[in-house]
């Protein structure tokens, strides 16, 4: 019961579950190779920017970018499911996973920088 609640409560887990029910194994929840070249390029650029960020402002800008992108992705994901466009939903779920991860990494870098700056 708790696992079902957690799955349905989290948009990414819920999307992966809905895709799984439809017979689609999503790269959003497993270590499958991502074949979205645009996402891979974007990921490399943003990860590099995060590694090079040396100020809280630069890290906060990347965090805000990741959060805004994740929210946009979530809205698009909802629309894709509503239109029953499962391929699009799968691609968007993978993008959502990426943006969430970048946001988490940026928050971790912020904590490290705060430790250095205090």
Note down, in words, how this protein is organized.
By secondary structure, this protein is an all-alpha fold. Helix content is 80%, strand content 0%. It is built from 5 helices and no strands. The longest helix is centred in the C-terminal third of the chain and has 32 residues, at 86-117. The chain is elongated. The mean pLDDT is 90.
Explain the layout of strands and helices.
Layout: H1 2-9, H2 11-21, H3 37-52, H4 56-82, H5 86-117
Helix pairs in contact: 1-2, 2-5, 3-5, 4-5
The portion of residues forming beta strands comes to under 5%
Could you give the distance between the termini? Answer: 44 Å
Strand segment tally: 0
What low-confidence regions span 5 or more consecutive residues with pLDDT below 50? none
Number of helices: 5
- Estimate percent helicity: over 70%
Shape: elongated
Reported for the largest beta sheet, the result is: none
User: Whole-number radius of gyration?
Assistant: 16 Å
